[in-house]
Amino acid sequence: MDKFTELTAIAAPLLRINVDTDAIIPSREMKRVSKEGLGKGLFAGWRYTEPGSRNENPDFILNREPYRRAQILLSGANFGCGSSREHAVWALAEWGLRVIVAPSFGAIFYSNCVRNGILPIVLPDDRVQALAALVEEDPQANRIRVDLGDCVITGPDRLSDKFDINPSDREMLMEGLDAIAVTMKRDDEILAFQARDRLKRPWIYL
Amino acid sequence: MGQNIIEKLWATHSVADLGDGGHLIYIDRVFFHERTGSIALKGLEAAGRKVRNPEQVFGCMDHIVDTIPGRTDDTMVPGGSAFITTTREAAKAAGVNLFDLGDDRQGIVHIVSPEQGIALPGVTLVCPDSHTCTQGALGALAWGIGSTECEHAMATKTLVVQKPKFMRVRFEGQPGNGVTAKDMILFLIGRHTASGGVGYAIEFAGEAVRALPMEARFTLCNMGVEFGAWTCIIAPDQTTFDYVAGRPYAPEGPAWDQALAHWHTLPSDDDAEFDKEFVIDCAGIVPQVTWGTSPQHETGIDGSVPDPLDEPDPNRRQSIERALEYMDLKPGSRLEGLSIDSAFIGSCTNSRLSDLRNAAAILKGRKVAEGVKAICVPGSGQVKKAAEAEGLDRIFIDAGFEWREPGCSMCFFAGGENLGFEQRAVSSTNRNFENRQGPRTRTHLASPTTVAASAIRGCLTDVRKLEPASHG
């Protein structure tokens, strides 16, 4: 997994609420048993003129310069709601996005992000709107800076906001950790728990 | 201070407190399907890791398989057979259980798991599928995860989980005529939005929930994720225990007595606390239907499409405007009487035996309106067999419905079969997102009875107004 520490980048505003994972990566774009090759299907329903085609819709934000090089996405509440498909995150990452800023996120999507090197940042709606307005004035120059070490996001207006992220998610992103390897350091605890639990709840063990 | 049911399950399953609200949670059961589970199994294989306790891991083919009679590994979804064969091979190599094609237990994971007694009260269960919250209806802590977390659960028997906030939603009063669990959950989402439950584990309680039969409780919990919840749960009671008893994987004999004693301790204590509570008066609910592209875009069947100009919140106003354009609807137009092109009964929301019985009661002695494509997909091989034993298949077929093999089918368009470009569908499923059931297909979510009534009339129909059929 790619480590994430800090980033100063172009941000693309996609200020819609309830952007679901079907919109991020439609089912028809999940063509193989693979985490790869999904970037081209990102937002396919909005990005291309008709389903299944690769004719770009010039109005869609990620098809416009300089947003084609955006690494930060600004969006509305409940981003990533809906299906658990991790393909949504794999598609965002392959396209080149590293940070999603929204007032709230779908729970499974949020977990999938931190396991794939994408930082989800929760900010109040009015601040997301303000950042979007600043970016739109001059998207090339008005970049956003994110520092995961201090948990701070700084707008082109030099105003900084602290954001919350739980320590284990933060560590996973900053160190690019393999979560299974981290948990297996506690294998003795897991096995001891299981031995006790077998006696307490024997009907669980098929 | 007492504990709520979620806290009790949390305490029973916490292997380690990781600090700052994070816990290593013991996972009793893992379920998977061929779309997201195949990747998880392959991921483990590639990393050279083994499944710990493979006897407690179960899979189903449901997402990609065809549902037309006579199906094989080949699929209408381009390249879909690779998902099926990869899952089969990886499941065999890992030694996990699989309800494969040709097995009469095969079906949609969230139907099959409770049906087989794999999900039980008091267990933790995860599946790389967002509708895993369905199984919380048994009093289980069941939630959807991604494929990477599924690898973690299979390899370590645990997941790292942040303790959620607690919400209780009390459904009080008596739902009126024609009102089902589907209408109750759509009403909740319509009132409190699709993000109303974000950050919460939710207990559904109240006299109207207690009165629901088990299958309807699954429907209620199924759409908890459409409310934004991390998961939802219903305290187990006699209805639950009667449902679980005698199921293939359920405990029996002395083990049943021991389990039952434990299950009786699970309901929230009287003085348990919740961070938030909503109360819904069910007497005020009529059959519901969605008009837009989010489950929160919904109203009573007697209602009309909103005018975005009446919406003060700019985000919601924009979302309504986009939805009306996609759905080709005018502000203020009435929903009842809106012409439909297709009707679908199926999905993990509404494809259980009671759903099919309720729809069949409407369809008996009637015909689907001309020009309407109507499909019924039973949720599992067991549902299909039971429905056929009581002649429900004949009622559906005689009315003009297709009668299919079990699977997720038209709940989503995966590149193969779909409900048609710019066609209008009424559907017993859970998501009315853009392009969900086909390229630019316009989906209206409703209960199976509303879908059946609408199929007959050829338009969105208030099931309460349907004249009695002449049962010949």
List its traits.
heterodimer, A: 206 residues, alpha/beta, Aconitase, domain 4, 4-stranded parallel beta sheet, 33% helix, globular, B: 472 residues, Aconitase, domain 3, 2 domains, 5-stranded parallel beta sheet, 15 helices, 31% helix, 18% strand
Describe this protein's structure.
The complex is a heterodimer of chains A (206) and B (472). By secondary structure, chain A is of the alpha/beta class. Chain A has 2 domains: 6-175, Aconitase, domain 4 (Alpha-Beta Barrel); 178-206, no CATH class. Chain A has 8 helices and 8 strands, in the order E-E-H-H-E-H-E-H-E-H-E-E-E-H-H-H. Chain A has helices at residues 21-24, 44-47, 87-95, 107-114, 125-137, 167-175, 179-184, 187-200, and strands at 6-9, 11-14, 72-75, 99-102, 119-122, 144-147, 152-154, 160-162. Chain A has a 4-stranded antiparallel beta sheet, with no helix packed on it. In chain A, helix 3 (87-95) links the parallel strand 3 (72-75) and strand 4 (99-102). A 5-stranded parallel beta sheet of chain B has the order 5-4-3-6-7, sandwiched between helices. In chain B, helix 6 links the parallel strand 9 (165-172) and strand 10 (200-205). Chain B is globular.
Secondary structure: elements and pairs:
The complex is a heterodimer of chains A (206) and B (472).
Chain A: E1 6-9, E2 11-14, H1 21-24, H2 44-47, E3 72-75, H3 87-95, E4 99-102, H4 107-114, E5 119-122, H5 125-137, E6 144-147, E7 152-154, E8 160-162, H6 167-175, H7 179-184, H8 187-200
Chain B: H1 5-13, E1 14-19, E2 22-26, E3 29-33, H2 37-46, E4 57-60, H3 80-94, E5 97-99, H4 109-115, E6 124-127, E7 141-144, H5 147-156, E8 158-162, E9 165-172, H6 181-192, E10 200-205, H7 207-210, H8 214-222, E11 231-233, H9 238-244, H10 254-263, E12 276-281, E13 288-290, E14 298-300, H11 314-327, E15 342-345, H12 353-363, E16 373-376, H13 381-389, H14 392-399, E17 402-403, E18 424-427, E19 442-445, H15 448-457
Parallel strand pairs in B: 3-4, 3-6, 4-5, 6-7, 9-10, 9-12, 10-11, 15-16, 15-18, 16-17, 18-19
Antiparallel strand pairs in B: 1-2, 2-8, 13-14
Helix pairs in contact in B: 2-3, 2-5, 6-8, 12-14, 12-15
